[in-house]
Amino acid sequence: MGKPDQSRRAFVWRSINWTKVQRYVFKLQKRIFQAAKSGQDAKVRRWQRLLVKSYYARLLAVRRVTQDNQGKKTAGVDGMVVISPKQRLEMAEKIKGNLKTKPLRRVWIPKPGRDEKRPLGIPTIQDRARQALVKSALEPEWEGRFEGTSYGFRPGRSAHDAIGRIYTAINQGQYYVLDADIAKCFDRINHDYLLSKIHCPSVIKRDLKQWLKAGVLDNGVFEDTEAGTPQGGVISPILANIALDGMARLIETMYPKASGGKVKATLIRYADDFVVISPSLDIIEQCKTAISRWLKPIGLEIKPEKTRVCHTLNPIQYEGKTEEPGFDFLGFNIRQYPAGKHRVGKINRDTRKTFLTHIKPSKKAVTAFISIIKHSNNTW
């Protein structure tokens, strides 16, 4: 099951029925998702083992890293980039299991609109293919477990969905907001903590340990990776999401919905950026303290210089300085403005609602976009 109908030797890459391949893999993933949602852990493990052994799943993993992904022409420490159909078929055989992971290649890329650079750890193309295979087995399980207000690096979810969720949360009232960022999240995640959260078949756990401890080559100098899930690997985003899963549940447990359905606090997260929304400043401060404490066992902390407390409508005094209303999140500025009684066409708006919620691109995002255009066209 999961093998092509014809002999592998005669199997030509270009003749693969990708619709059939994708349908088969999706069918297994759906079973994993449903088993995870219903708490049938033994079935989850069984389907995951079957998926990582499947020839169809391996073909799809190779295709994703050698044809579909933007970084398909980026080599790891071995300098290898898979190009020919023959090499792709060979790789589908090689990633079957028991691979020895090679160190990551350190690459520094500029941060948009800044002089700073951020480090990427690029695995070899073969390791990336194996990571894509393992991700295809882990992702449906965790999609059945992840919190509903987590939006980053998840299939079918985007930054716009996160912004839409914020709009829904604040549109009917005026709120205090904790706008926070986790310092060097991908570089500092505690490996033991992360692995303790993942209950998977031993073959997958072995791979995860190897990738986390692979080390990095930076200009020929080898460095151990004692913590973190280096950005650049296919598997890194889902591992970061697994590590941070539970933050929203912490807030829900601390402040459950009132009997009338009124929400006391809402946490919305996109990867390592998050906001907490509440009508109470005291609750916001308590959430900040609780989240800081919750992050410590993971090896993480809130970044003070990129964290602020504000109000959606009014300026507030906080920790000795004036915080202007509104906040920036995921390239958007979200703010409320006072609004009096008025009419739009023949529709009377609710006169009790004395504000309007407005979302627009942030100044920082606009500046970064102009910079990209300026450098790409070389005309301004």
Automatic annotation (TrEMBL):
Q: Which SUPFAM superfamilies match?
A: DNA/RNA polymerases
Q: Which Pfam families match?
A: RVT_1, RVT_N
| Segments forming domain Reverse transcriptase | 90-334
What are the alphabetically sorted keywords of the record? Answer: Nucleotidyltransferase, RNA-directed DNA polymerase, Transferase
GO molecular function ontology, one term from the record: RNA-directed DNA polymerase activity
Sorted alphabetically, which InterPro entries does this protein's record hold?
DNA/RNA_pol_sf, GrpII_Intron_Splice-Mob/Def, RT_dom, RVT_N
Protein name in the entry: Reverse transcriptase homolog
Species whose genome carries this gene? Limnospira indica PCC 8005
**What's the source species' lineage?**
Bacteria, Bacillati, Cyanobacteriota, Cyanophyceae, Oscillatoriophycideae
